[in-house]
Specification:
By secondary structure, the chain is of the alpha+beta class. It has 3 helices and 9 strands. Strands 4, 5, 6, 7, 8 and 9 form a 6-stranded antiparallel beta sheet that branches. A 3-stranded mixed beta sheet has the order 1-2-3.
């Protein structure tokens, strides 16, 4: 089986800009290698090709056959690393907690292991007849939730 550490080492040599990072690296039992790379300033197809060629150039299909996919994380994939939170600051995201509860709001603050979103909701305020619009700013631990970007076509 192909070593994940070996592939990671190859990729890291090709990530030349400080803002480039590995979002996810998977290798299954059939040697299907999935590499998801990104950058705070954008990652081009040429960058993906460069990484793909570097991996292929360091593996021998005569010794071990493999399938390789190199791309950026799509909108359907949840965030895996803190850099993805920094890349999406001020964007609307969806946060799904382990208990199944979901939140939608704008990503407003990030620390090393947590983040805050801001959203408004209509809440019944004591002493008022009508619901009032209240701004909420919950904070979540990155490793305790699943987070995705919300795409809006407005």
């Amino acid at each position: 089986m192909i070593s994940k550490d070996f592939i990671k080492e190859i990729i890291e040599k090709e990530l030349t800009d400080d803002d480039q990072f590995i979002a996810e690296l998977k290798i299954d039992s059939q040697n299907r290698i999935s590499v998801f790379v990104d950058s705070l300033s954008g990652f081009s197809i040429d960058d993906c090709v460069k990484i793909s060629r570097a991996i292929e150039g360091n593996l021998d299909r005569e010794v071990e056959d493999f399938e390789l996919q190199v791309s950026t994380p799509g909108l359907e994939l949840p965030f895996r690393v803190p850099q993805q939170y920094f890349k999406n600051i001020d964007r609307e995201i969806e946060v799904k907690c382990k208990d199944g509860k979901k939140y939608q709001g704008v990503l407003t603050n990030i620390t090393d292991d947590s983040f805050t979103i801001t959203y408004t909701e209509m809440v019944k305020v004591e002493g008022k007849k009508k619901k009032q619009e209240v701004t909420q700013t919950p904070t979540f631990k990155m490793n305790e939730v699943e987070t995705k970007v919300i795409v809006s076509f407005k």
